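Predict structure. Input: HTH cro/C1-type domain-containing protein, 156 residues.
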Amino acid sequence: MAIKDESGATSPTLQDKINMLVALPLPHEHVSGISDSPDSIGERIKVIAKAAGISDSLLNALRLGRRDNPTKVTMQRLADLYDIDPAYFTDGPLGTEIYRQLQLLQTMAEIKKAYTPQLKIAFRDHFGLSARGADAALQILEQLRDLEAGGGSREP
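Output follows.
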C-alpha cells in the first residue's frame, strides 16, 4: 500500500514495486510456459527468481511484505532482469517516477490487449489524433513493445 511523504504525496512501497515487477512481462528468453492468469503467480515467482538468481522464497516474502530489506545484490539482480535502474527500489523520487512509468506501460499494455478500439478513442480524444494517427500510434507502440521484448538495451 502506498505511503504518504512529508509533502502529502503518496509513494509506492517496496511491496508495491515488487508486485509491479511480478505483474510485468519478462523478456522473451524467460517466459516459456508462463501464463498471464493470476492463478500462475507461484510459477511466475519461481521463473523470475530463477532468472534473477535469487530465491523464490525471498521474492515471495518481498512481494507479500513479509520482508522489506532486500540486499543491494538482490535489488541489482532484479533491476538487471527487468533492465531498470536499481533506484526503482528506493524511496526517493527516482524510484517513484520509475514505478509510475512502469504503471503507465502496464496499463497501456492491458488496454491494448483488451481494448484496442478504446485505445484508439483515447488517442483521438485525448491527443487529438485522427483515426489514421491513432492507428499509427498503435503501430509505434507495437514496434516499441517488439523492440523491448527482443532484448534491446535501453540507454540511460
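The mean pLDDT is 82.
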